[in-house]
From TrEMBL:
Xref: Pfam families: ZSWIM1-3_RNaseH-like (PF21056)
Species classification: Eukaryota, Sar, Stramenopiles, Oomycota, Peronosporomycetes
Source organism per UniProt: Phytophthora nicotianae P1569
Protein name: ZSWIM1/3 RNaseH-like domain-containing protein
Domain ZSWIM1/3 RNaseH-like per the UniProt entry, residue ranges: 165-233, 234-273
Length: 327
């Protein structure tokens, strides 16, 4: 779908010719337009004035597709003009399927009266309000039949595509929320790619469970282990699809993982260790916090004592470090 971004009228063009005293032939005023620029309806950059999460369905997507047309002289002797395309860039950065445009007006929440105006101005039809109502209902029915319209349906479709890849294992756990008989909602989602399972099969001795916030932004972990419930569904799912878990010897968790009892139940006899790096980082942030009112010297002393405690090799070293802890 194209829209006219800008245009130059014949009157403006002729006025510029007269002002510059050019010998170029003037166009008949009845022609109206001299040139036009057509851009994709997804052109431009969406600028939100809100402070919350930006709209994901914003129409402006920065598409560079553009067509420039203007009237040019093709025969100076006979003073013949023709409409020519002076620029044509047809590379889009978004989907061009028909489904992406069928329900454009409806999805944008345009009023039925505005839809009628749009159809009358851009088509040869003269629709009635009842016609528009039937059209909207038809689009809703088509969306329900041909494609997902909600988050749950999109998730189900994506999970099916993920599971169709050989070696991938994905599962959605549903649970009741609220009163008995209430609608079931997803309480846990597990994703195990073929590459992840292959690596775990080769190196199953140590499992690191990362529950740090923002792991997707950091992009530094091979595995991300998530359990939303207290029944350890995610852990049982991993065990069921990775027989190598029986060779597991150590589980390393960070400070944000709180379901230690589930770990002990799921992996009996396995050593569970707390990640030293995350604990040190957390304590340093707490010491530096202004909430406690520590002076600079107190912060330095606490930092030194904390390092002695963490890197103590023997029990006596720990006792000696503890005895120096005073404020």
């Amino acid at each position: 779908i194209f829209r006219a971004r800008s245009n130059t009228s014949v009157a403006d063009r002729n006025a510029r010719i007269d002002k510059s005293e050019s010998k170029a032939a003037e166009l008949p005023a009845s022609w109206g337009q001299y040139s036009r620029t057509f851009v994709c309806s997804h052109s431009g950059k969406y600028k939100s004035v809100a402070t919350k999460r930006p709209r994901q369905e914003a129409r402006a997507k920065g598409c560079k597709e553009q067509i420039n047309v203007c009237v040019q002289v093709v025969d100076r002797k006979e003073t013949t003009f023709a409409v020519r395309i002076t620029r044509c860039q047809l590379e889009h950065n978004h989907s061009l399927t028909s489904q992406a445009y069928f329900d454009l007006l409806w999805k944008k929440g345009v009023k039925k009266s505005d839809i009628i105006d749009h159809l009358m101005n851009h088509t040869d039809n003269n629709p009635t309000p009842k016609d528009v109502q039937n059209l909207v209902q038809k689009l809703k029915t088509r969306e329900q039949r041909d494609g997902p319209s909600g988050t749950d349906k999109r998730l189900k479709k994506w999970m099916k595509q993920f599971g169709d890849v050989p070696g991938n294992v994905g599962r959605i756990f549903l649970g009741d929320v609220g009163d008995v008989g209430a609608k079931k909602v997803a309480t846990c989602i597990t994703l195990q790619a073929k590459h992840m399972r292959t690596l775990f099969d080769q190196f199953p001795e140590v499992l690191m469970i990362d529950t740090t916030h923002g792991t997707n932004r950091s992009k530094y972990k091979v595995f991300s282990f998530m359990a939303h419930d207290t029944f350890g569904m995610a852990m049982e799912e991993v065990k069921a699809n990775n027989p190598a878990w029986t060779r597991l010897q150590c589980v390393l968790v960070d400070k944000d993982f709180t379901e230690l009892s589930d770990l002990e139940k799921a992996f009996p006899g396995v050593t569970i260790l707390l990640c030293q790096f995350h604990v040190l980082k957390y304590l340093r942030e707490e010491i530096a916090s202004a909430d406690y009112g520590f002076s600079r010297s107190q912060k330095e002393q606490l930092g030194g004592v904390m390092s002695l405690l963490f890197y103590a090799i023997t029990e006596q070293s720990t006792t000696n470090a503890s005895s120096t802890w005073f404020i």
